[in-house]
């Protein structure tokens, strides 16, 4: 039987595994999430910029709703819904 003192090189046979796990943990902590928007996505964002005419229209509707003067025609709304869904098929 061979007995080595406390200073031999293989005192902890799992040391390599422990250091590898620690390295993996450090790598995980150093990584950060990234978000990249494609050129197509950027074009969509730019096209969604509010035009002044559209903003004026929205403001008029908001004012009418707040004053209680905004009226919705349920028949026209139903017709548009039916037309929309019948064209999808």
From TrEMBL:
Domain Anti-sigma-28 factor FlgM C-terminal: 33-83
Positions of region (Disordered): 1-55
Compositionally biased tracts (Basic and acidic residues): 31-55
Keyword Nucleotidyltransferase: no
The organism's place on the tree of life at top rank: Bacteria
Keyword hit for Kinase: no
Keyword annotations of the record: Bacterial flagellum biogenesis, Cell projection, Cilium, Flagellum, Repressor, Transcription, Transcription regulation
Regions of compositional bias (Polar residues) in chain numbering: 1-30
Coiled coil (UniProt feature): none
NCBIfam families from the UniProt entry: FlgM_jcvi
Similarity-based family: Belongs to the FlgM family.
Protein name: Negative regulator of flagellin synthesis
Lineage: Bacteria, Bacillati, Bacillota, Bacilli, Bacillales
């Amino acid at each position: 039987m061979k007995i080595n003192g406390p200073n031999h090189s293989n005192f902890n046979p799992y040391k390599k595994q422990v250091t590898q796990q620690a390295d993996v943990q450090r790598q995980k902590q150093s990584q950060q999430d990234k978000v990249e928007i494609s050129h197509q996505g950027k074009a969509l964002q730019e096209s969604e910029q509010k035009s002044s005419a559209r903003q004026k229209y929205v403001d008029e509707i908001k004012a009418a709703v707040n004053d209680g003067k905004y009226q919705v025609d349920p028949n026209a709304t139903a017709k548009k819904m039916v037309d929309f869904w019948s064209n999808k098929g």
